[in-house]
Amino acid sequence: MSLHLGKGTAPKVRRYPKNNQTFTWQQFILPIVLLIIWQMFFELGLIRSIVLPPPSTVMKTIGELLQNGQLFKHLGFSLIRVLEGFSLAVLFGLTLGIAMGLFRNVYLWLDMLIQVLRPIPPIAWIPLAILWFGIDEMSKIFIIFLGAFFPILINVIEGISQTDHKFVEVAKVLEISRLKFTSKIVLPGALPSIMTGLRVGLGFSWMCVVAAELIAGTEGIGYMIMDARQLAQTDVVLVGMLTIGITGKCFDYMLKALERKLLRWKTTYQGA
Amino acid sequence: MSLLNHHPYLEINDVNKQFIVDDQIVPALSAIQLAIQAGEFVSIVGSSGCGKSTLLRIVAGLECDYQGTVTLDGKRIVGPGLDRGIVFQEHRLLPWMTVTENITLGLTESDPERKKQIAQTYIELVGLAGFESAFPNQLSGGMSQRVAIARALVNKPQLLLLDEPFGALDALTKIQLQQEILRIWQSEKTTMMLVTHDIDEAIYLGDRVVVMSKRPGMIKSIIPVNLPRPRNRTSYQFFEIKKAIYREFFHEDEASLEYVI
Ligand SMILES: Nc1ncnc2c1ncn2[C@@H]1O[C@H](COP(=O)(O)OP(=O)(O)OP(=O)(O)O)[C@@H](O)[C@H]1O
Ligand SMILES: [Mg+2]
Question: Which CATH architecture has domain A69-263?
């Protein structure tokens, strides 16, 4: 019954597209050049150390803070807060987003409320957060949650609403169940958008953790930065900033790796 | 479908269909009258935009807003159903599913072993052995179209609607798949409605060729193909039918017609 079309000539099909997301040398050139110029400005006496300490000083401070464990202590606290707040945001954002995306009525009931709450910056919630949750962990996690929740929610809804009508018709013609339609057609189609929501949400989490750590307390990268500012330790401020930058990048890298694995059917535009 | 029933298997009765585009009424189908017997193979030809896809979509149950009646086995069509399969003009494969997953998407069989077996049968049927775990973006247009055909076939529909299914195929593959469709038609007794822009294909496959006219889409004429199968595409009778269809298309004199063919 077979036609044997192309049989025998069929090449092995690679399931995973080429991994082209790893580090390349181009990425490092500009940061290194900037570091060199920055150092040179200091050596030439063009900037004062109190305004902008040179990379050499920052490196030394990193060494000190690593040795006395301060950096890891503060980073650890911030990291746990981000993970807690972000996880909650993922949980609620995904659940609510899927419910709103799939059920028109849920959307109609909630949309207005969400549209009004969304533009309020998480930082503006700090006074209320303190009144509601005190000055301890809970209020900080609440602020981070708020920061990550809305981007995730909006992107999940958006992704689901983008479901191609052509595929909806395919589902109708094949009479597949609502559950199968959701799990095999709607959600995989929404996944690129959902992943974008997660990445944006995680970025917001890091912004919010610093803001939240200004509330009170004596730990966290945000606290470390503010404390150093008061003591005019500009080098420590820079180390804190750098730590957030690098940690954020690492997290994003992990999400991107996950995205690549989940979206291996997709060919992305890499630029000309 | 029994002989006791006097109605045809599919009956399209005075169907009119309009689309509203920018508050303007765009007529797509006008006074379509067509009866198809169970097990019949009907080809539909007509120029681009004359409403062929729209007609198939109505029969598939995807367009419900039209005037007139369409009955299948005596019952009005109110929506899609597994008794009808459709191969869309574009392949519409889900990009995140492999060839096998796409083919088994609508399979009602639940036993995984059996499911795999059925998928394999149809993959081989359309000549895609070796590509089971390929994603659509790793396939050529013709290969994708063949997956779409397999997807429509797995549940063994009684009526198969084919919207230019071989459009993206090379001549050789096309001929092989045409023969495969004929084989399925003969063995499964599937009723076939095939839209094509290839007049040779329409004659080679169809018991009748429906010629549609442009805007609003109307049935210009229905030309029976009373040739025994397997048909010879180069025979004189084949050529005569082809000429009759071209004549419907162009309304031109014989002289220039000879030139076209
Ligand atoms: N969803 C729609 N909304 C508005 N107009 C439509 C829609 N679908 C089809 N039409 C119009 O209806 C007419 C018939 O379209 P249809 O797709 O049935 O043509 P066709 O005969 O299949 O053409 P082709 O051979 O190019 O595929 C066209 O004029 C088209 O513009
Ligand atoms: Mg069409």
Answer: Orthogonal Bundle (1.10)
